[in-house]
Amino acid sequence: MMSRNRDHWENPDNWTAGIIYHCPEDTRYFVPKGWKWGGWTINFSHPKAWFAGLGAIAIAVGPATLAMRLTGNRSLWLLAMLVSIIALCMWAHNESSKE
User: Fold this and answer.
1) How far apart are CA 15 and CA 9, in angstroms?
2) How many Å apart are CA 24 and CA 59, to the nearest integer?
3) What is the widest separation between alpha-carbon atoms in the chain?
4) Cβ(11)–Cβ(25) under 8 Å?
């Protein structure tokens, strides 16, 4: 993290209930959660955050839903879900570690 983004991220005034992050000065739309290995959360003050959230939902459930609807094959559904989750994690990690 950039020191500027880190300073914003470490400021408790930018967190609501310790889990909802909102800081318009932070340049990232995905940020690490406050506890180690907690995953990521959305910076709800970033203009692109809502699009990123909708994109994350689409990536997480879209391919698996299409696979199940089009083929009815549960193995393909499971594979699509696994690939979707991995892609979502990679996207969130990449975005949250931007400098």
Assistant:
1) 8
2) 25
3) 49
4) no
Model pTM greater than 0.90? no
pLDDT digit string (tens) for 18-57?
888 999 999 888 888 877 677 888 899 988 888 888 888 8
98: amino acid identity, one letter: K
What is the sign of the dihedral through the CA atoms of 51, 57, 73 and 71?
negative
- Rounded distance between C-alpha atoms, residue 5 and residue 11, angstroms: 10
How far is residue 10's CA from residue 82's CA, in Å, rounded to a whole number? Answer: 32
Pairing of strands 30-32, 40-42: antiparallel
Structure token digits, residue 51: 């699009």
